[in-house]
Structures are given as C-alpha cells and as structure tokens.
Amino acid sequence: RISSNEKTDWGSIWIGAVVVFFTSAQSSIYFSSLWPYLQQLDSAATENFFGVITAAYSLWNAIASPVFGFWSNRIKQTRIPTIIGVLLTAIGNVLYILLPLNIVTPKYMMMISRAVMGTGGGTLALLRSSAVTASTANDRARAISLNTGAYSLGVTVGPALQLLFTPLSYPGTRLVSSIWLNLYTGPAISGLVVNAICLTLLYFVYRDSSVGLHKVAKMENEAHERFFALPKFDWVAVGVCLFTRFAQMLVVTNLETIGSPLSMTMFAWDRETAVFYVALMQGAFTLVGFIIFAANTIFDFGPRMNHRLSSIIGLLIIVAFHLLTYPWSFLSGKIKYQEETWFNGTEPVGCRRSFDWCATTPPINKYVYIVSYSLMVGTSFALLAISMSTVYSMVIGPRNQGTMQGILIFTGSCARMTGPILVSSLFVQSGIAIPWIIEMLMCTFGVLLWVVFYRRLVPLKMEESLSAGDRYRNKHGMVYKF
C-alpha cells in the first residue's frame, strides 16, 4: 500500500455538505403544504392518492441512487453526475410552479414533479461517498458526521422553512400570467434560486478528491496482490445498519406524510392553520437536530462517542414517542366530525364523515404531540443520522463507497416510498393506531439487532492492524497474517 502525506480536503467536503443540505431540504420542504395545496387544486383528491404522490419522490430516488452511484464509480468522479442531479431537481421545481396552469391534471402533475425531483435527489449518495474519499482515516468520522448532519438537517429544516412563505397566504401575488407567489409555490420558486447556487458551487469550486481511498501499488501477479487487497466487510453488520435506516426513514416519512391530515382531523385545524403549525413543529424539530449536529461538528464528539450505543438509544426514543402519542382507550374526549364544526362558515374542519374510526378513537393531546415530536423525534433522528451512518461507513472501510452509499440511500428511499402509501391507507381505515404499532415493533426489533450483533458492528479491520496469526477474507480468498 502506498503511504501518503495527503491531508483531508475540507474545502470539497464543506461544499458537498452545503449541496447536500440544499438538496435534502428541497426534498422535504413541501411536506407541510403538499396536502393542503392538493386539496386546494383538487377538492376530490383523497389521502390514498396523496400517499402515492409522496411515494413518487422516493420511488424514483430509490431507482436513481444506485444508478448514480454506479455511474460515478465508472467515470471516477462525482461532480458531473451531481450537476445532472441538481438540474433535474430544478426541472421538478418548474413543474411544481406550473401546477395551476392545468397543463396536466394538477394531482398527476404534482406526482410527476415529485418524481423528477426524486430522481435528481439520487445524487445525495455520491456526495456522501465523497466525504469518505476526500478524508483521511483520522478525519473520516468527522467528515461523515458533517455530511450526514447536513443531509439530516436539510430533511428536517425543509418543512420548517415553510414558515417563511406562510405570510404570503393564498392566492398570493401574481408574477406572470397564471404564475403566483404564495405559501404553496414559494418553496419551488426559492428552490430554483438554491439550485442556481448549487450549480455554481459544483461547476466553479468543487473538486473530486481521493485522499481517503485505499491506494495499492502495482503488483507483479495475483499471488502478490492478494496480500494487499481490502478485506471483505461484514454483510450482517451492513444489514443491521440498512434495517435501521429503513426504520428511521419510515417513521420520519410517515410523520411528515400524515402530519397535516392528522392535525386537520384530530385538532380541527383549517388548511392555513395546519400548514403554519406543522411547519412550526418541524422548526422546533430542526432546532433540536441542529444543536446536536453543530455540537458534534464543533467539538468533534465522534472519536469519543459510542456510536453503537447512541444508535440503540435513538431507536428507543422513537418507541417512547409512540407510546406517549398513542390513542390509548383510557384517554377522554371525542374527535369532532366536519358537520359538527365549521371555520368561518366556509371551510369544513375536523374528521371526514367517511372516517368511522373517529367515533371510537380518543383524540391525542395536541400539546403532547407537538412537544414530544419536536424534542424526542428530533433527538432520535440526529443521533441515528450521526451514529448509524458512521458505523455503516466504518464497517465498509476505505474503499470507493459510491455504490454502498447508494444502497443506503436506496434503503431509506424504499421506506419513504412504501411508508406514505401504507400509512395513508391505514390512516383512512383506522387512524394512527395501527401505523404507530407497526413503527414501534420495527424500532424494537432494530434495538434487538444492535444488541445481538453488537460485537460485529465495528470498523473494518485493515491488514496492517492485525496481529500474527490473524486472518481475514478478501476478493482473492483467505489471507493469513504472519
């Protein structure tokens, strides 16, 4: 192996983190306003179709992530594929802005827009792998934390940014013809500005770096090469991380998906009130995550953290949140149907008459829901984003991680794809009781996996760290250390 005195390319890592933040924020900024806007454009739209729209982003993100990863590995760079991804995201924003023009039925146009944006978001895996390849072994944990923190912060801050556009109200200010700037189109219009910033950084400033890649000298023959090839990583440990990622993103996506329908049904909020409070709640969620990410970046807790224990704690906090906000039968009160209460005499608020479960399900306390969501889920999301992602990258080792990080993003995208369809259907049929039980069981199972395989969730052991008599397996077979 070639020794190197190269240093971590922090400039590229920071630029990558900025692009990751902006891209992930755009993926989630619509969540608090998507359902009210769909109802505004098409009052006959159902919660089930809303689940399909939400899943469209994740479906195409799941498809694009490994494809972009494979392409990046083939051309040995992340810059060009990432630029293409940002351009696709911009196209998705344009389509969203054009919704009121009825070029295509609004609900289908909304679905297409989200699908295009999901495809563009597939490049997030590339920027995560670049944080690994651009950092030395000593700085890798911090580089990974910075990148995953930027992604997680973007995902959580996105819905909170909706607060900036809520004062615009609806229909807002006419820009050109039937194009309006209001609380619904504001995120897409601002997204185009962000896309321009990202393209400028990627084209003129960002550079690919391979400081952290395992460098091997040219070998005389395969017998010689086998002693220098990277050991194979533990697929069981990788599987535990992938399941944790799936469970984490399933919970967060489901909460984002039914956040507005749940609050409008349970708390009898009108559309604008729901947009405001869901965004406000997400803002508090983001603040908690930001404090944790910032503290970890500034004080570099990574080397001193037990990332395995932190991941277990993160999953347990999610279970505790669901226990606190479950509609237990001993709770008092009744969910009001739309016919029983009106807002300003025009917009019906409360539970739809078709939801039979409202008659037998007690309402959850809105203050408990808002506070526990903001503090507990925010803390859990940050802990898992930092610790689980760090464990995953360490288990894989200093190889080109484009494909493997693509698989991690793919797993999260599968959760974001299946979750909205499942939870929106279950919400229509039975409220939040069954979705809450499913999520609690998944996170509890995740805790058991981390406990059972605790000793296998460790960094990849390199050949130079092994002692005489140790052995490991690489692509050439079993290698023994003498």
From TrEMBL:
<feature type="transmembrane region" description="Helical">
    <location>
        <begin position="12"/>
        <end position="37"/>
    </location>
</feature>
<dbReference type="InterPro" id="IPR020846">
    <property type="entry name" value="MFS_dom"/>
</dbReference>
<keyword id="KW-0812">Transmembrane</keyword>
<dbReference type="InterPro" id="IPR036259">
    <property type="entry name" value="MFS_trans_sf"/>
</dbReference>
<feature type="transmembrane region" description="Helical">
    <location>
        <begin position="311"/>
        <end position="331"/>
    </location>
</feature>
<dbReference type="GO" id="GO:0005765">
    <property type="term" value="C:lysosomal membrane"/>
</dbReference>
<keyword id="KW-1133">Transmembrane helix</keyword>
<feature type="transmembrane region" description="Helical">
    <location>
        <begin position="83"/>
        <end position="102"/>
    </location>
</feature>
<feature type="transmembrane region" description="Helical">
    <location>
        <begin position="407"/>
        <end position="427"/>
    </location>
</feature>
<feature type="transmembrane region" description="Helical">
    <location>
        <begin position="148"/>
        <end position="168"/>
    </location>
</feature>
<dbReference type="Pfam" id="PF07690">
    <property type="entry name" value="MFS_1"/>
</dbReference>
<feature type="transmembrane region" description="Helical">
    <location>
        <begin position="275"/>
        <end position="299"/>
    </location>
</feature>
<feature type="transmembrane region" description="Helical">
    <location>
        <begin position="49"/>
        <end position="71"/>
    </location>
</feature>
<dbReference type="GO" id="GO:0022857">
    <property type="term" value="F:transmembrane transporter activity"/>
</dbReference>
<dbReference type="InterPro" id="IPR011701">
    <property type="entry name" value="MFS"/>
</dbReference>
<feature type="domain" description="Major facilitator superfamily (MFS) profile">
    <location>
        <begin position="12"/>
        <end position="458"/>
    </location>
</feature>
<feature type="transmembrane region" description="Helical">
    <location>
        <begin position="433"/>
        <end position="453"/>
    </location>
</feature>
<keyword id="KW-0813">Transport</keyword>
<feature type="transmembrane region" description="Helical">
    <location>
        <begin position="370"/>
        <end position="395"/>
    </location>
</feature>
<dbReference type="GO" id="GO:0012505">
    <property type="term" value="C:endomembrane system"/>
</dbReference>
<feature type="transmembrane region" description="Helical">
    <location>
        <begin position="235"/>
        <end position="255"/>
    </location>
</feature>
<protein>
    <recommendedName>
        <fullName>Major facilitator superfamily (MFS) profile domain-containing protein</fullName>
    </recommendedName>
</protein>
<dbReference type="InterPro" id="IPR051068">
    <property type="entry name" value="MFS_Domain-Containing_Protein"/>
</dbReference>
<feature type="transmembrane region" description="Helical">
    <location>
        <begin position="108"/>
        <end position="127"/>
    </location>
</feature>
<keyword id="KW-0472">Membrane</keyword>
<feature type="transmembrane region" description="Helical">
    <location>
        <begin position="188"/>
        <end position="206"/>
    </location>
</feature>
